[in-house]
Amino acid sequence: MSTFLGLPGLRRSTGTGSTATGAGAGTGTAGGAVADEPFGPVPHPQEPLRWGDAFPAAAKQTLANDQLRRNLGHATQVIRTKRAAVVGEVPDWEALRDAGSGVKEQVMAHLPELLEQLERNVTARGGVVHWARDAAEANRIVADIAKAKGADEVVKVKSMATQEIGLNEALAEEGIAAVETDLAELIVQLADDMPSHILVPAIHRNRTEIRDIFLARMGDAPPDLSDVPRELAMAARAHLRRKFLSAKVAVSGANFAVADTGTLAVVESEGNGRMCLTLPETLVTVMGIEKLVPTFDDLEVFLQLLPRSSTGERMNPYTSMWTGVTPGDGPAEFHLVLLDNGRTDVLADEVGRSALHCIRCSACLNVCPVYERVGGHAYGSVYPGPIGAILTPQLTASSGGVSGHGDPNASLPYASTLCGACYEVCPVKIDIPSILVDLRAREVDADRSRSGIDPWAAAMKAASWVMADGDRFALAGRAATLGRGLGGRDHAISVAPPPASAWTRSRDLPAPPAQTFRQWWRDEHTDPAAGPAATPKEQR
Amino acid sequence: MRIALAATCLADTLFPGAPRATARLLERLGHEVVFPAGQACCGQMHVNTGYFREAVPVIRNHVETFAPVADGEWDAVVLPSGSCTGSVRHQQAMVCRRAGLDELAATAEAVSDKTYELSELLVDVLGVTDVGAWFGHRVTYHPTCHSLRMLHVGDKPLRLLQAVEDIDLVELPEAESCCGFGGTFALKNADTSAAMLADKTAHVRETGATVLTAGDMSCLMHIGGGLSRQSAGVRALHLAEVLASTREEPTPLPATTFTRPERHDRTEAAR
């Protein structure tokens, strides 16, 4: 068996032979050209929170991927069903959601004090706390720690915060290989791909694709590897075990940090996270500043809410907690990097701040009918789905929570039918639909100062004038009835000019009726002798 | 009861059968229905698309038109639409307050307190589930997102349908999944919307139903538009049109998805 020497795909490098050629398939280099990608078109973003086309165009591309749609449709359905079953057996689920939401509100209201309390407690127990204003600062801190330890390879616990800052790519530029140890995250990394789901980053891949990725990129995968899940897991297990035993530095995120004890917590399913958290000499945890809970008791609420909402399990298999360092037990050195990266701007926003309540369970992704069809990559951010549609544009907004016309993230708040399924399952009751509507209003208002004619704005203005008055609306309705001849014998319009053509591409439009309702009503309620029975004007 | 009918802008213009049936049904149950002619639209489309400023005059017109219900001139306002009722209940006052119109917001809330979606009015306010309807067709019901998750109407519409004589009510698979309409979403994200619609129409067709019904004409326009394009032979009828149907005066089954019988239609003879 060949020995894998180590540097996983370098996303931004060109033509440097950055991929290891394993048994079998001769893979090309990850040169950035989509056409050369052996595992389908994968994004190679410069910015983890803003890549690719605006949502409608990006979604059009992913919708064309039949395999993706089948994989996603199946996977989201399975998780949805599991979640519904285990949530249904908790009699006080709604009370738990209220408690979770309440704790998070309390955290946001006292965030500065709680962060200082956390810092004091982590420091008192032998940890080192770093503050990072943005991605660059956070990446610098982690790279410097790894270099100081002489590490050219670090093992990683699955973490959204480090995805958000592009840590792996930043470390690679410094010659440090970051090895993802979460099975799904490893699949994504080996394929030089981007995650498409918060919890199940390789949800867009099926097991045959995973086998191909392992064979081509893992280096030490058995050449007769099948696509049986157990075999795939065993191959990854053998591959990763060597990494765990040799790594000097581990990097993790955190699900929770307890302010009053300085305790960090990571919940996971595989145990690979615990390997990282306990074996290497040095542990660096990168955590968004919103991940706090005030007291240890508060964990009770979230450790019930999170596993049931995310994996649909009653309890996750592994819950690791650590407080500073303990001589002779686990890492001898612990660094906590507290990451802002736009969060204080979100916190300052009265409406949008509840996006910071998110505990990254991904329940909203699994129930979202839009996500289910288009997948995560269409959102152009490591945070996809409904939560991504409110979190991403807020994190990247310039000021006042506005993305602005040229920013593809300005399209994210419109990537929803406002069906409300996300709000219904959110374990901390983030009212995602209302925030989406609010973010839409900001983009609209920001666009008002732009010169030139925006057809949407013009149409909305005209519609506002017509719809603000019963008489004007009645007139418009009468005018519409003149168009009844547009439909054929089936009263349906199948071809229409833009913008209605976006509708008629896949749906018919009803032809207007011969009479509007109000015309019929007036006729019905008119007594020929006495004049109109209902006197509309006096009721206004 | 004296009930003011808010026809909704969409049904008033494109689907008059729905508000007609609402009026017919409530009158049959012994109530007086009035139609305040000043009404136009609740403002939902503007609000949901982010045009709050343009929504204000639309909301003002709706609130002022229906303000008499707050003074007791009418007992209730009925809206045969889950999403419009949702907008009245959850958005109108918020948008008014944002615009600094606190007084209008207060009136909007007072009107909203007496505004009911059709199944809410029938079951919660009027206390009926058996409305004495007859409808001898195979029907499947799409619960519509805003009725389900914004208003929480629960199984009220289904209970009303189950009580209809001779109805063959069949369950819609994945009923609670959105049809992909989402107002301007259907235009702004037409491809995604169409993908959602394809799954919804497939489920509707699976049931073998002759009639698809729902409490919201906008969703029915969308799903019906897909069914019509596919020549699926499934008619889209509003819940009110099913409930208004009786043995003596049955709601006729339209020839195609969107055809509407035009009672007192003076132009019909000329056609």
TrEMBL record, chain A:
Q: Where is the composition biased (Low complexity)?
A: 13-22
Which segments constitute the Lactate utilization protein B C-terminal domain?
Answer: 458-524
Domain LUD, first and last residues per copy: 115-325
Keywords assigned by UniProt, alphabetized: 4Fe-4S, Electron transport, Iron, Iron-sulfur, Metal-binding, Repeat, Transport
The record's region (Disordered) falls at 1-45, 518-540
Where in the numbering of this chain does the 4Fe-4S ferredoxin-type domain appear? Answer: 355-430
Q: Does the keyword Methyltransferase apply?
A: no
Q: Give TM regions.
A: none
Superkingdom, natural source: Bacteria
**Which Pfam families has this protein been placed in?**
Fer4_8, LUD_dom, LutB_C
Could you tell me what this protein is called?
Iron-sulfur cluster-binding protein
Automatic annotation (TrEMBL), chain B:
In this protein, which residues make up the domain named Cysteine-rich? 6-88, 139-223
Report residue spans for region: Disordered: 245-271
Instruction: Give start-end positions of Basic and acidic residues composition bias.
Output: 260-271
Q: What is this protein called?
A: Glycolate oxidase
